[in-house]
Amino acid sequence: MENRLYLIDLYDIYGSLLTEKQQYYFEEYYFSNLSLSEISDNDDISRNAIYKHIKDSIEKLEKLEQELKINEKNNKILEFANKLDDKLKEELKELI
Hints:
Elements: H1 2-14, H2 20-31, H3 36-43, H4 47-68, H5 70-82, H6 86-95
Helix pairs in contact: 1-4, 2-4, 3-4, 5-6
């Protein structure tokens, strides 16, 4: 479950850098919670092809995070913000 949330966070940050197909299959699998079989039936494409699109998407998202570390930096900022008083905390959270 933790990995799923991590991937969704990465998608929120870098998702627009994926191809349209990668975005579509990632969203169907992670946001619509459809199985590979359900996506396969809906789109008349093999489960293996869908799996490859999703796998490629994950690899690209992880590579982008490894290089840019935006998610890591956001998490550090949120940790810091949680140590601040409520007014500053809310202002900082609005920035990210």
